[in-house]
């Protein structure tokens, strides 16, 4: 399973639109355009297909945690250090 497949399955499972994914990536200061994102969801043989790199998927998953749980407050950060 490729990173593109993982991203597609998460988009469907969580009912995310492309705008939602762009917003989630912006939560971790990772910028991606709508056309770049569209290229990730194309079929592998398509002329404008783009493979999803590890960095993009990692940032999406980190942003998804913030999107679903909210930003980590200071108390939770300090509890982890102890």
TrEMBL record:
InterPro entries listed in its UniProt record: YehS-like
The protein's name: Uncharacterized protein DUF1456
Organism field: Dyadobacter jejuensis
């Amino acid at each position: 399973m490729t990173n593109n497949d993982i991203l597609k399955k998460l988009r469907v499972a969580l009912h995310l639109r492309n705008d939602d994914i762009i917003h989630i990536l912006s939560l971790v200061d990772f910028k991606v355009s709508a056309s770049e994102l569209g290229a990730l969801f194309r079929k592998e043989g398509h002329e404008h297909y783009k493979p999803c790199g590890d960095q993009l998927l990692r940032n999406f998953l980190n942003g998804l945690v913030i999107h679903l749980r909210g930003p980590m407050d200071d108390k939770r950060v300090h509890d982890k250090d102890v």
